[in-house]
Amino acid sequence: MSVTVPQPRATRDTVLFTVIVAVVAALAAVPTGLVILLSGGGPIVFVAALFALVPVGPVVAAYLWLDRYEPEPKVLLALGLAWGACVATFLALLAQEVGTVILSLSDQASATIVAPLTEEFAKGLFLVLLLLWRRHEYDGVLDGIVYAGMVGVGFAFTENVLYLAMAWNGTDGAPGGLAGLTSTFVIRCLFSPFAHPFFTAMTGIGIGLAIQSRSALGRLGWPLVGYLLAVLCHAAWNTSATFSGGTGFIAAYAIVMLPAFLLAVGFAIWVRGREEAVLTSALHDAAGRGFLHPAHVPYVVDLRRRRAARRHAHLAGGPRAGRAMRDYQQAAIELGYLHHRFLRGTAPRDAVARGQAFVELLQRLGPAVVFPPDGSTPTASPLSHHAAPGDRPA
What we know:
Layout: H1 10-40, H2 44-53, H3 56-66, H4 74-103, H5 107-133, H6 141-169, H7 177-191, H8 195-212, H9 216-240, H10 247-288, H11 298-301, H12 303-344, H13 351-365
């Protein structure tokens, strides 16, 4: 059976975080659903939901591809989707309604000022809670992009359901009927499904940079900078839709938003590619300290060789050996990220205890792990001692 990496407080925090977020999402789903039903006009909402689902799969798949080096727990990714779809949507709707009533703002001011501020705050709140309760699952910028993407996808889905239903009913200036539904589907679901994930990624990157920062100013300042960038991008996007009867939106999309999105995609891919170099350096240093055998490092950091090692282990020893290889690789990856932060001087307070747990797990799995024979790789994983990250080299 699969081996779970023991971590201080991890089990309690995992259950607590999962239960609280799931309950809050379920509670928020009720008023959010009622608002959509009342605004959209009943049965058409279910048709709108089917159309809104179209971009969800491809966008989620893209984020899962980014997350291949250290796959985040599927439960947390699902909670991110639920938070965006239910909690963030409800909080944003509530805040915008209160702000509009109290401040007596016009619809344009609400869309360009209140909506970006409240929606990015509501979406970013999940990342803050994740950082507070599941700190060991948030390692840096790439994790921030992935978790922010899940929240953004969930938020965009619910918002698209609302707008598609309203477009069919001809409300909010839409032509109505099939023409209104089609035009809204093309603009929101085909041309710009990345918008909300892109905005919230700014907050996720900010928090990721704060995690990696050595200074108190960086730890406090980067999340704020990320949030403000998310708000500015969101405000620019909403503002473009209010100019020249839609012409401004098309121009902003072609000249600003699409290049900015492609730049963000390039950045995300670069960060993902950098993970191999980071893990390789950290794990070779860890191997020098006796935490794992140096010949195992390529089978952890190289995705092609990682898959080949799992296939070989499964063929050589059956499902149990395949699971042992997967668990060994995952523990080594976690150890690599933790050791990288130790080398940078940004390790968390429980780094020694967590590192010891990873090393002990690697030792327990060692006898069951069978690597492909390449002339240099041992069939087991002998470790020189029960050291933890931070010890002197063995």
